[in-house]
DNA sequence: GTAAAACGTTGACATAGGACAACCTTTTTT
DNA sequence: AAAAAAGGTTGTCCTATGTCAACGTTTTAC
């Protein structure tokens, strides 16, 4: 099993080596090109991805074609369309690599079987859900009732990696502003 | 055990009557007045609440004193500050009853012990986390890049109960607009 | 039942940030 | 290496929504 995933399991579920060896075959490594899609809006999401290197984003497109980035994940994190994975309904979001990205892929059927049968995966899943929830909540909480300057400052303080590694266009769509506004704001700082 | 909670357990965890009788003593009934607080910002949240009748909201207050309602729950739902419950850190949100409200209260220690030891509660918790996550995601997704008229229409379509049972002031703070704007928009519909 | 407070509506005005456009720079393609 | 495409910056203008204010109505408190 890849050391990054091992670390994740040890840290969040106290899993021992024996269990990890048993789980290892469920995770298949694959590398995607920069800008390549792991999932497109309208498809049913069938996999959970653990990022070994690179990064990906979840984004939606509204009726005017404007992109809205909702989550950006780097190496060492799980990322997928949980809403589609959980409900089995078509995703309303896309998953796209922002850099050349290597992931470990587990199929949802295996994943949910293991959630039921294997306590360490049950714990990991609980952890993933809890932190996904908390992250989402924090983002709503921190963004609601703030102007765009405050949002950029928030990003600088809380997720500086996003500002340094990700293009302005994507950052703007993550902050809910236009690239123009972001550009103007950056010159103010 | 109260029939509403029973129904919840049967529906989401297939729990049988024997288990429900065992779980029953952990849930204590209590009634709160309209506007009464179950939790104040800065306190550590120690309980999970299941609403039997009435409704409550979670809201935050920003530095200018502006309220921001993030979740409104009616009878038949669990509600608490999960972020504080999970992390054990002080909550940044308030929980307040919007009507005279009767809840079943379970202490977080009991709750998390049961999550570990009792599969039906484990399943319930998973379900709560999953739906909390999905609800939050949907709200972000549906609100981002929409103007306030679209938000009101969204509410009318997706949560009409909120518009009919809850005061304009609270609804406005849920939509992230001022009561003035909401008032103007309502006259347009 | 009366006073006080909170809430809701509407108007006039101010402003943050989007739309459009031009231009420059960087990246990608061949 | 040249051409094309994408991304970034900056200017002007416009619109949606917040702010301030006045006033009427409903709810709460004594």
From TrEMBL, chains A, B:
InterPro entries: cNMP-bd_dom, cNMP-bd_dom_sf, RmlC-like_jellyroll. It comes from the Bacteria. Signal peptide: none annotated. Transmembrane segments: none annotated. Gene3D superfamilies: Jelly Rolls. Residues 11-115 form the Cyclic nucleotide-binding domain. CDD domains: CAP_ED. This is CRP-like cAMP-binding protein. It comes from Mongoliibacter ruber.
